[in-house]
Amino acid sequence: MLRELHIRNFALMDEIHIEFPAGFNVLTGETGAGKSIIIKALSLLLGERASIEDIREGEDESVVEGVFTVDQELKKMLEESGFEVQDELIIKRVVKRDGKGQVFINNTRAGVKFLQNIGRRLFDIHGQHQHQLLLDETQHIEFLDLYGGLIGLREEFQKVYQEMKNKKAEFKNLLSEVREGERKKEFLQFQIKEIEQADLNIGEEEELKEEWEVLSHYQSIAEAVSKGINLLGEEEESVLDRLGLLKQYISNVAKYDRKIEEILKSIDEATGILEDVMYQLRDYSGSLTYEPDRLEVVGSRLELIQNLKKKYGDTIEEILLFLEKAKSELERIENADFHLEKIEKEIKKLEAEAEEKAEELSERRQEVAREFSKRITEELSQLGFNSARFSVEITRREMDEKGIDDVRFLFQPNIGEGMKRLSAIISGGELSRVMLAMKSVIGDRDRVDGLVFDEVDAGIGGKTAEIVAKKLKEIGKHRQVLCITHLPVIASMADVHFHVDKVVKEGRTFTVIKRLDDEERVREIARMLGGEKLTDRVIEHAKELVNKKGVR
Q: For residue 104, is it within any domain?
């Protein structure tokens, strides 16, 4: 439901704020006052194409902002798309003169396409210059299924149909793999064999690199270790000998100062550490051997690993992971025939189930179509189409996500003209009344929250106009209705009455809108009844109309 509409610098409007209540709302005013501009602004909020021609003269941008209440289904749709929603939805549309428009949904940037998806759930706008669902024949099946309560049955079919489509896609992909399987199979076998023969181990490359460094620098290492051993203890005046001499000198004077005892301890510790170093160097020297053949083996192994890394991964872990994937793919190719046969059986089962559900859905549509055609024809008769006929044409088609039916609405406005496609022959005013009949018949099964009727009163009067008014009133019990009308009988039936006017201030023209109180409303309906002069008799007639309709 639309709660608030704020319009700035749009066409003849500089700044307008309107609060719309639930129920049946009418907008009246002289021709050209700007009633349709309000509907055009609402259409912009619902995703209609923006035009810089709508920006008020002298301004750089126009802004239209609306506050809507949302149901749980729409709330879920918005949240799944990343928009935060509490109890209200705020849509803002900015049209700039440089053509760079913006859309905001709850203060988050959004695209026009997504806005259009949201807009379809919020309002249907019916008028001569608006996009109308009734003219889109792909939507006719939606009206029929909604009226017949077939949405649940269709969703059951769609679940099976989607499973069938997924299985067929899986079969097609696997079949494609099989067709190139032999060539790929040989290549996979080569890759698997090459990696398996290498017999790689995680951590092996690091160990080999360490060993390569030692073997390739054997001479330098051996010389350094030998010199270290000699320097520490095996040559004259070695480091350990000099430490022993140092200890002797310091010991001789230790008795004169206790602090020197701490120094002696440090000398002992240093001596012990260096003795350990010398023993370690001797052990290392004893284990150090030079094997020219081993150097060649290590080098070849590292080269092999490097070549495998170029082909299969940056590390041995990645190469082994590639091996597992290659084995899985080879297994799938080798067992493809078995899998193809299995999937084919599943597809046949799903096809049979989908056909069964599609047939059931089609039969129900045929039943519902007869009742729907009859109900709409009866409603149209009450709405002034005394000779009109409405029918639903259902033809067979190839199965898709909506079943096996093409649904098209046919219309005969006058006797003897024959049934023709609704979209091909209907006028704006007629279309509004057909939609009015639809909404009356479908009632609260409709998922759209609001309806706009522009020109619903075109070409009608008298008793028909009163019936149209009652229909709008009835629909207003279930949905929010905004209606532009020139007929006093329709205006008098509304729950809330807005008056649109055009004024001139300081050489500029402005459109203004006001919600009328009881007295103002009587005078507006009197104007609609009697023209320029509001006589007492016309005023009384207007009061009778308002009182008769029981407007709040």
A: yes
Which of 334, 349, 381 finishes a domain? Answer: 334
- CA 489 to centroid of chain Cα atoms: 44
Say if residue 188 is in the same domain as residue 320. Answer: yes
Q: Would strands 102-105 and 108-109 be described as parallel, antiparallel, or unpaired?
A: antiparallel
115 and 187 part of one domain: no
Taking the mean position of all CA atoms in its chain, how far away is CA 190? 45
Say if 388 falls within a structural domain.
Answer: no
**In terms of residue numbers, what domain contains 34?**
2-128+429-515
Hey, which residues does 393 pair with through a beta bridge?
A: 408
Same domain? For 187 and 330 the reply is yes
Q: How many domains does the chain have?
A: 2
On whether the CB atoms of residues 445 and 146 are closer than 8 A, the answer is yes
Round to whole Å and give the CA distance between 294 and 218: 12
Question: Which residue has 């706009």 as its token pair?
Answer: 452
Q: With beta carbons less than 8 A apart as the criterion, state whether 164 and 347 touch.
A: yes
| Cβ-Cβ contacts under 8 Å for 408 (sequence gap 6 or more) | 137, 140, 392, 393, 395, 421, 422
DSSP code string of 233-276: IISTT-HHHHHHHHHHHHHHHGGG-HHHHHHHHHHHHHHHHHHH
Residue 419, phi then psi, degrees to nearest 5: -80, 130
What confidence score (pLDDT) does residue 474 get? 86
Residue 144: which of 405, 339, 360, 418 has the closest Cα? Answer: 405
Q: Specify the pLDDT at position 259.
A: 86
Cα 427 from Cα 65, distance rounded (Å): 31
The tokens of 22 are what? 């639930």
Last residue of one domain, picked from the residues 334, 365, 384: 334
Kindly report the pTM of this predicted structure.
0.60
The whole-number mean pLDDT for each consecutive block of 10 residues of the chain, a chain of 552 residues, reads 92 91 92 86 89 88 92 84 86 90 90 88 67 75 92 95 95 82 84 93 91 85 88 82 87 85 89 91 84 86 92 93 92 82 94 96 96 92 85 95 94 82 71 79 75 78 82 87 91 93 87 92 89 78 78 42
Q: Domain check: are 99 and 235 in the same one?
A: no
Reference 35, options 454, 500, 451; nearest CA is 500
Question: Which CATH number belongs to the domain containing residue 456 in this structure?
Answer: 3.40.50.300
| Residue 502 located in a structural domain | yes
What backbone phi and psi angles, to 5 degrees, belong to 141? -65, -30
pLDDT of residue 129: 42
539 within a domain of the structure (yes/no):
no
Distance between CA atoms of 437 and 420, rounded to whole angstroms? 18
Check: CB of residue 546 under 8 Å from CB of residue 527: no
DSSP 413: S
- Which single residue is written with the structure tokens 């459109």? 511
Residue 337 neighbours by CB distance under 10 Å? 12
